[in-house]
Amino acid sequence: MPSRFSGSTALVTGAGSGIGRAVALALAAEGAHVVAAGRTAASLGDTVALIEAQGGKALAVTADVSRSAEAQALVRATVEHFGALDVAVNNAGVFRGGRPLADLDEEDWHTQLDTNVTGVFLALRAQVRQMRTQPSGGAIVNIASNIGMHTRRPGVAAYAASKAAVATLSRAAALDHIRDGVRINVVSPGATATTMSLRPGETDAQRVERVKDELPLGRVSATEEVAAAVLYLASADAASLVGTDLVVDSGGSL
């Protein structure tokens, strides 16, 4: 595969595990210098080690993007270390589900809105402010979910609201900033091979059996498949895609 991101700098939030790590590894494999960001230094260090073991360049930056100062400092650290910010993937998110709305704790509501929506807003704002100063602009992909805009599930009202907000915020921002040279799009994953798609007490093998009948494709998406969608939207291959919401969910929202 051609190195679509050779010489570019990419920032990935929530890069310590799951989809975020897969995106960071995929970007590095195609030539990007990667800043892996998140709240847990140890897991970010593991991501950086994996990239460096493959011959790539990466930097771990601990940051909580739901805090404005940290979101801004993250972008500054990226530019200071690698010289620019060409691609940003806002993947950091949390899930607190399992109860109907009337039984939802306010703390769980605020936790999901603070990280999933405010965190994306603050990171996105800082990233756009940098990218619009660059002659080449930049590309941003925000990670939403098929739960929200595309489908609903019992017991996940707050999560659905937060991810629907990410999709809407992204499309509005895409319209605001395309003339600044910043292209913003969305990937909305469904059930993926991460711990988030496991039910309480469920094993990976049990999930495999459960989704054979639940999902039209008969399996969950691999994190690498979600990463491939992200890289497509961030690349020049998708140069005319603005405000697109690409659903990667094994047909789960059909």
Automatic annotation (TrEMBL):
Residues 8-190 form the Ketoreductase domain. InterPro entries: KR_dom (IPR057326), NAD(P)-bd_dom_sf (IPR036291), Sc_DH/Rdtase_CS (IPR020904), SDR_fam (IPR002347). Signal peptide: none annotated. Transmembrane segments: none annotated. Its EC number is 1.1.1.-. One of its GO terms (molecular function) is oxidoreductase activity. It comes from the Bacteria. It is an enzyme of class 1 (oxidoreductase). Keywords: NAD, Oxidoreductase. The keyword Oxidoreductase applies. Belongs to the short-chain dehydrogenases/reductases (SDR) family. NCBIfam families: PRK07231.1. This is SDR family NAD(P)-dependent oxidoreductase. It comes from Streptomyces sp. R21. The lineage of its organism: Bacteria, Bacillati, Actinomycetota, Actinomycetes, Kitasatosporales.
